[in-house]
Amino acid sequence: MAGDGPQRATLSPLATHLIEALHTVFALKPADESQRAAQPEIIRALRTALEARRQRIIISESAVGAVKWMAILFQAFCTLVAIAMVHSDNRRACAITLTLFATGVALSVLLIAAYSRPFTGKISVTPELLKQVTATEAKGDITR
User: Fold this and answer.
1) What are the percentages of helix, strand and coil residues in the chain, rounded to 5?
2) Model pTM greater than 0.90?
3) Which one of 4, 63, 81, 131 has the minimum C-beta count within 10 Å?
4) 19 lies in which domain range?
């Protein structure tokens, strides 16, 4: 249903089109020297594409662990306490410095959260751009 929330991209562990292309290239019998020279290059390019895809899937499934989150937050807390202690004699300087540092911590946590799991949660990448590229490619509108 369209209004039930953001769509999620799904990735098959196997890239069937790339694997089929690889099998097709392996099955080809080169007719001349240029085809014999091109075949290993095509195989190498397809294997590189398969490996790159595998790496992207691994990266997309990784996450920042709870221990790292606790360490980041504890470090931020300790730094805020240290700043407060250093500027305890001047309330205005203390307030400004703590506000600036707390804003920096909040932005850092937001960025880590956004890039930790880019395909899930409130701050996520949707498959819309990939669908646009696929539709454009299917129409043959891509210029190289």
Assistant:
1) 70, 0, 30
2) no
3) 4
4) 13-62
In this structure, the chain runs to a length of 144
Work out how many domains the chain is built from and give that number.
1
Nearest to 39 by CA among 29, 48, 50: 29
- Other C-beta atoms lying within 10 Å of the C-beta of residue 43: 14
Q: Residues 6 or more apart from 113 whose CB is under 8 A from it?
A: 64, 121, 123
Contacts made by residues 110-118, CB under 8 angstroms, sequence distance 24+: 112/64, 112/72, 113/64, 116/63, 116/64, 117/63, 118/60
Residue found under tokens 């306490």:
81
Question: Is residue 111 situated within a structural domain?
Answer: no
CB neighbours of residue 60 within 10 Å: 15
Residue 49 within a domain? yes
Residue 5 inside a domain? The answer is: no
Condensed to tens digits (0 to 9), the pLDDT of residues 63-98 reads 777 888 899 999 999 999 999 999 889 999 899 999
